[in-house]
Amino acid sequence: MGVPPGMPTNSPTGTSTIPIVPVQLPVAGALGPIALRRLNKLEYDNTVQRLGGAPGASSAFADDDPSLGYNNMAAVLTVTPLLAEQYARAAKTLATALNLTQEAPCAVGAAGAAETACATAFIEQFGKRSFRRPLTGEEVTAYTAIFQEKRGRAEYAGGIRLVAETMLHSPHFLYKTEIGEGSGAHSV
Predict the structure, then answer these.
(1) What is this structure's pTM?
(2) Position 89 in a domain
């Protein structure tokens, strides 16, 4: 069996020794296009409030550029260097103001494995609320490593705050996935 032009081969004769397996694609338009869209200022504020932050967290952000009268169109909700800097400052401010007694309680005097268990519970719960979905095992492991690295240099609160800051500056927090045609036309 020959290899289509431009495709790499793994044999000197130019024919592929790797079997080609046909892939069944969904019917065109079955799922519709998937858009990755940044939260606009209102959505950001609502999400932050749901996480226990103060109202108006985005008040210092650059304004969202409207398109066709809407400020939530994926094509125009880009992140400029200025907005990225504002997101980073807001994440640090929000993480610093986090009420750890409520969000990440841990028994007084807890240490080692007990603190790590408290941190893991926080990561799973805060991450689910922040990312609007459960975290994967790899994500939990990565955020736990961030906690442990910071915890090695600071107290429990410092580790939790660094995890929260990292989550609040993550694309998984700042963006959401939408499935559909996105034509803007709908019937009532």
Answers:
(1) 0.72
(2) yes
